[in-house]
Write a structure and sequence with these properties.
By secondary structure, the chain is α+β, with helices and mostly antiparallel strands. It has two domains: about 1-160, Ribosomal Protein S5, domain 2 (2-Layer Sandwich), CATH 3.30.230; about 165-285, GHMP kinase, C-terminal domain (Alpha-Beta Plaits, 2-Layer Sandwich), CATH 3.30.70.890. Helices cover about 35% and strands about 30% of the residues. The chain has ten helices and twelve strands. Strands 1, 2, 3, 4, 5, 6, 7, 8, 9, 10, 11 and 12 form a twelve-stranded mixed beta sheet that branches. Helix 1 packs parallel to helix 2 and helix 6 (about 200-205) runs antiparallel to helix 7. The longest helix has 16 residues, at about 100-115. The termini are close together.
C-alpha cells in the first residue's frame, strides 16, 4: 500500500496565555485554523522504519529520531505493541520554526496514515492522546478546520467557520524557539491590551465578519517575538500597507500573516509584497488539517 498525505499548516487568530501550571506547561486559550499551505508525506509499506527528506532546503531539519514524523511512528508502534515498518518521504513546504505547526502537522499526518497502513483502527481521540506526547499542536492538526484550543493543546473543540479567509504569510527573518519566547514572556509579562477577545473572535469567524475579527484578534507572544526579531514589526506594517485588513504573528513566530477581503485583493497584494519578501505566500483557510489524497 502507498499513501500520499497532505499535512496542512495552521495560523493563530488568537493566542492567550492564562498562566503556568505546576508541571511547567502553560495554560492556553487559542483560536486556530488550518490553511491550504501544506507539507506532503508519502508512505509505503516496508520492513524497516525510515524517513527521507525529499527537498531538504533546510539542512537543520533532521531525518532521524529528532524528527517528529519518526517520533510519531515510534509512538504509534509502542502504543500498539508492534514493530511494523514504513518507508516515509517528506516534502517540506511549511516554513520551519515559524509558528505554523509544520512539524506537528507532519507528525499528525504520520499518525493518521500509519494508523491506516498498519490497520491499527484507532479513533481520533486515541491518536490525539498519542500525538499530545509528541507536540502540543498535534491534536489540533489531527482535527483541523477551525478549533478553539485550550489547556496545553489537549482540549480541541471544532468551531463553525462562516467563510474562507484569504491570507498572505511572510517569514521576515530567522525562526524563533518557542521555549525561548515563553521564557522571555515570564520576564516581560503580558500587557492587558495585548490579550485577544477569544469569544468575540470566535463569533466573528462563525459569521464571516472580517473587520470584527481583526478587532478581536491578538497574540500575547507577539511583543516578545518582535523584540527578538524587529523585522517582524516591519513585515506587519508592510502587510497593512498592502491592503490587509489586519496583520498578526502566528504562534511564537516568526511568520506573520495579513487578512484580505477576497482572493483578488490577496493576489494583487502578493505581487507587490513578493518584490520585498520573495518567501511571501498566498493561501486560504481549509476545513481539514490532514488529508489522505492518494491511496494505492
Amino acid at each position: 500500500m502507498r499513501l500520499l498525505v497532505k499535512a496542512r499548516a495552521k495560523i493563530n487568530w488568537t493566542l492567550d496565555v492564562l498562566g503556568q501550571r505546576p508541571d511547567g506547561y502553560h495554560e492556553l486559550d487559542m483560536l486556530i485554523s488550518s490553511v491550504t499551505l501544506c507539507d506532503q508525506l508519502e508512505i509505503r509499506e516496508a520492513e524497516e522504519l525510515s524517513l527521507l527528506l525529499a527537498n531538504n532546503r533546510h539542512s537543520f531539519v533532521p531525518a532521524d529520531e529528532r524528527n517528529l514524523v519518526i517520533r510519531a511512528a515510534q509512538a504509534l508502534r509502542d502504543a500498539m505493541g508492534v514493530r511494523k515498518g514504513a518507508e516515509m518521504r517528506l516534502h517540506k513546504y511549511i516554513p520551519v520554526c515559524a509558528g505554523m505547526g509544520g512539524g506537528s502537522s507532519d507528525a499528525a499526518a504520520a499518525l493518521m496514515a500509519l494508523n491506516r497502513l498498519w490497520d491499527c483502527r484507532l479513533p481520533l481521540e486515541e491518536l490525539s492522546r498519542i500525538g499530545l506526547k509528541i507536540g502540543a499542536d498535534v491534536p489540533f492538526c489531527l482535527t483541523g478546520g477551525l478549533c478553539r484550543v485550550r489547556g496545553i493543546g489537549e482540549q480541541v473543540l471544532p468551531r463553525p467557520m462562516g467563510r474562507a479567509i484569504y491570507l498572505i504569510t511572510i517569514q521576515p527573518g530567522r525562526g524563533l524557539s518557542t521555549r525561548e519566547v515563553f521564557e522571555s514572556l515570564h520576564t516581560d509579562g503580558i500587557r492587558p491590551e495585548d490579550r485577544p477577545d477569544n469569544d468575540a473572535a470566535e463569533q466573528a469567524l462563525a459569521q464571516g465578519y472580517l473587520r470584527e475579527l481583526v478587532g478581536a484578534m491578538g497574540n500575547v507572544l507577539e511583543p516578545v517575538s518582535v523584540r527578538k526579531r524587529p523585522r517582524i514589526e516591519e513585515a506587519l506594517r508592510d502587510l497593512r500597507d498592502s491592503g490587509a485588513l489586519g496583520a498578526q504573528m502566528t504562534g511564537s513566530g516568526s511568520v506573520v500573516f495579513g487578512i484580505y477581503p477576497n482572493a483578488y485583493r490577496c493576489r494583487e497584494a502578493l505581487a507587490v509584497i513578493q518584490a520585498k519578501y520573495p518567501n511571501a505566500r498566498a493561501m486560504h483557510t481549509a476545513d481539514s488539517g490532514i488529508e489522505i489524497v492518494e491511496e494505492e
